Amino acid sequence: MRTIMLMNAKGGCGKTTLATNIATWFADDSAKVALADFDPQGSTLDWLEARQGYDGIPQIEGIDASRESPRPARGTDYLIMDAPAGTHGNTINQMLKRVEDLIIPVLPSPIDMRACNRFLDELLASGRVSRQQTRIAIVANRTRENTRIYHQLEEFLGHLKIPFITHLRESQNYIRAAERGLGIFELAPSMVWQDVEQWDPVFAWLKKGA
Question: Considering its fold, how many domains does the chain have in total?
Fold first, then answer.
């Protein structure tokens, strides 16, 4: 079973958006997928509840990991984990147990970049990361390419010794999909082709570690 976690100590950076869309991409490829929500707010579980209203789309198992150990059903191919905000210190080590791939979403704002820098200092001190048992990469989220702050974010990420694999544009398609319990890969291709293209490096990076 492949284990993938979305984590950043800063809240509101898009962990749930990335987790749910990664889950649907693998599920649409006929894999058996589980989503573990570690956040007591339960945003990922709310998304899964909205998804129950559709026939003919892949089923994804939901696990309330804020209450129970994330143990998916037997035969699960991918366990996608949505970590809570405010994860620090030894909690990082506990969260990363058995995590193979960790993706960190970062927003283009000075506050988020400073918070990311502090979080990365803690993360790189983790035994799982320092021993290269957990791969890590960064995704720039909700970006507008032709803005000054986006270029500042690119410069900031370019100085890090961590792969910066892609940027995802600020798009209403993510909101439309989330409201319906869908991933953008399950919306009309003519509507989301620009967004879908930006995900190619994410799945190329994940496949490289398989």
Answer: 1
